[in-house]
């Protein structure tokens, strides 16, 4: 998106303004506005109504004022995967906004998410434009299955995000490693022209948006998305109506697509962890359940919830996933599950992309009221699994090879479908599993490359093998793994690369 930051005079808005909950229930009624001189308008185009509702509520909770319609009170127009011209054309058409008199700042979603994380409105900087352009290029490369280009643009975006200063000229990048010729060309064009023609062309490309849309469906990869595109399908509704052959996972992905496209909040992730802890310890006391993925890296929202399960007495964890999933299904808490047994044939001396742990890819049925009404201090006092009655009837009993897909009524409902991955690791491999499942993907990839090319070691989510000594290096903590590399420990919050 072409972003040209412009100064905007402050509005005289009372700081006692409150959100009336008109977009998404009343969970934030009474929240005071901290930043009365900032008015945010979220462009729904390519963002979607569900995501817009979630972001609106998040902004109000953080003390931001969100306007439902364009007006003189709007200071920041936030859009996702749109060019500046596209946004202006849309505002002209829908709101009668005149470009000549338009003085709000057009910003990308990167500015919004960073402001939410900082809990204050940030200055609009060039890095917001630069990161987003590189992100679009990375997504396009990934959808074209060009791994090299994807990694190059992803790495460049991460580098810009980590810089402690604002990039305003190319000289600011002097001496910065791992910025390729293509990435530098894009950055130079944006700094000089305020936009990138290549990014603009991608954002106008129908295939890019269609594949991105289809790939957002649980169980759908790039090859399948491309196949549907070549068959003439363009929307999720068209896919539903096509009666094409789908896997059980894809059926579930389509059935709960609207919910699964809405980001999962930290409160929801904590509540799901609480539910799983209660279920696991019913069968395996003293088990260790850890929230991994982006939430362990300190993120406030994500696409799914990843939980790692182990037990200090190695061997006791075997088969636990079947017991837990079966029991939670009888309680009406699981809408879909796909259990995979442990496929390991012993430790491998070669680095591998995928692990062989016993795991379950599932969709949870999360009751919204529980999350909205319970604070952290009361979380441990409530047992969502108490009682024997089945919630959300119509669920069939789970088996060891079950694929649960439950048809539910459309319209407003008191629950939300959430993607949850449960992974079971032996205690001797737990530290490596924790490192691997914490991410980020780019961080993990570079760490494994470092192990191979610098230390002559093979790192996986199961083990670390020293090729020179011809031995496996044990570790009970992540700190010990970094020590094997001779590296200073990097905490999870610093692995968002």
Architecture overview:
- This protein is an alpha/beta fold and 497 residues long.
- Among the domains are: 127-203, DNA polymerase, domain 1, CATH 1.10.150; 209-245, DNA polymerase, domain 1, CATH 1.10.150; 264-429, Beta Polymerase, domain 2 (2-Layer Sandwich); 436-494, DNA polymerase, thumb domain (Beta Polymerase, domain 3).
- 40% of the residues lie in helices and 13% in strands.
- The protein is built from 20 helices and 14 strands.
- It has a five-stranded mixed sheet with strand order 6-8-11-10-9, sandwiched between helices. Strands 2-1-3-4 form a four-stranded parallel sheet.
- Strand 13 (464-466) and strand 14 (471-472) form a beta hairpin.
- Helix 13 (266-283) crosses helix 15.
- It is globular, with a radius of gyration of 24 Å.
Q: Care to give the gist of this entry?
A:
With 497 residues, the chain is α/β, with parallel strands linked by helices.
CATH class bucket of one domain: Alpha Beta
Mean pLDDT: 82
Please, what is the CATH homologous superfamily of one domain?
Beta Polymerase, domain 2
User: Which blocks of ≥5 consecutive residues have pLDDT under 50?
Assistant: 1-21, 23-29, 375-382, 387-411
The beta-strand count equals 14
How does the major sheet shape up?
5 strands, mixed
Report the structural category. alpha/beta
In CATH, the architecture of one domain is 2-Layer Sandwich
* CA(first)-CA(last) distance: 22 Å
Shape: globular
Radius of gyration: 24 Å
What do we call the CATH topology of one domain? Beta Polymerase, domain 2
Amount of beta strand: 5-15%
**Helix residue percentage:** 40-55%
Tally the helices.
20
Major beta sheet, strand line-up? 6-8-11-10-9
């Amino acid at each position: 998106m072409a972003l040209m930051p412009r100064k905007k005079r402050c509005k005289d808005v009372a700081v006692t303004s409150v959100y009336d909950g008109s977009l998404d229930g009343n969970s934030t009624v009474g929240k005071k506005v901290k930043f009365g001189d900032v008015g945010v308008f979220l462009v729904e185009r390519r963002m979607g109504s569900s995501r817009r509702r979630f972001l609106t509520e998040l902004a109000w909770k953080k003390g931001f004022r969100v306007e439902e319609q364009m007006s003189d009170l709007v200071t920041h127009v936030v859009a996702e995967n749109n060019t500046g011209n596209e946004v202006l054309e849309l505002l002209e058409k829908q709101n009668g906004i005149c470009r000549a008199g338009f003085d709000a700042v057009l910003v990308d979603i990167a500015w919004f998410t960073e402001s939410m994380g900082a809990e204050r409105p940030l200055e609009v900087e060039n890095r917001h434009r630069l990161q987003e352009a590189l992100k679009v290029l990375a997504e396009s490369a990934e959808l074209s299955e060009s791994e090299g280009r994807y990694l190059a643009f992803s790495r460049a975006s991460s580098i810009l995000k980590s810089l402690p200063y604002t990039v305003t000229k190319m000289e600011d990048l002097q001496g910065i490693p791992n910025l390729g010729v293509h990435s530098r060309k894009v950055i130079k064009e944006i700094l000089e022209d305020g936009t990138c023609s290549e990014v603009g062309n991608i954002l106008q490309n129908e295939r890019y948006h269609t594949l991105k849309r289809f790939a957002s469906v649980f169980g759908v990869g790039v090859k399948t998305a491309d196949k549907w595109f070549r068959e003439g399908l363009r929307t999720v509704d068209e896919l539903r109506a096509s009666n094409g052959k789908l896997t059980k996972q894809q059926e579930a992905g389509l059935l709960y697509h609207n919910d699964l496209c809405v980001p999962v909040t930290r409160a929801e992730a904590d509540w799901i962890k609480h539910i799983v802890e209660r279920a696991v310890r019913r069968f395996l006391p003293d088990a260790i359940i850890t929230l991994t993925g982006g939430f362990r890296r300190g993120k406030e929202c994500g696409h799914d919830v990843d939980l790692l399960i182990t037990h200090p007495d190695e061997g006791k964890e075997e088969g636990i996933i079947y017991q837990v999933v079966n029991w939670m299904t009888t309680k009406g808490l699981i809408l879909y599950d796909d259990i995979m047994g442990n496929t390991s044939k012993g430790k491998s001396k070669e680095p591998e992309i995928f692990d062989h742990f016993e795991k379950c890819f599932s969709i949870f049925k999360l009751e919204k009221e529980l999350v909205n009404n319970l604070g952290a201090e009361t979380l441990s006092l409530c047992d969502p699994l108490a009682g024997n009655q089945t919630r959300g009837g119509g669920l069939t009993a789970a088996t060891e090879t079950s694929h649960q897909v439950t048809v539910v009524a459309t319209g407003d409902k008191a629950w939300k479908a959430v993607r949850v991955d449960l992974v079971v690791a032996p205690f001797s491999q737990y530290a490596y599993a924790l490192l691997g499942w914490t991410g980020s993907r780019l961080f993990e990839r570079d760490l494994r490359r470092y192990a191979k090319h610098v230390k002559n070691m093979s790192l996986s989510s199961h083990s670390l093998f020293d090729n020179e000594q011809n031995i496996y290096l044990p570790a009970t903590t992540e700190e010990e793994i970094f020590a094997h590399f001779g590296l200073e420990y990097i905490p999870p919050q610093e692995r968002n690369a």
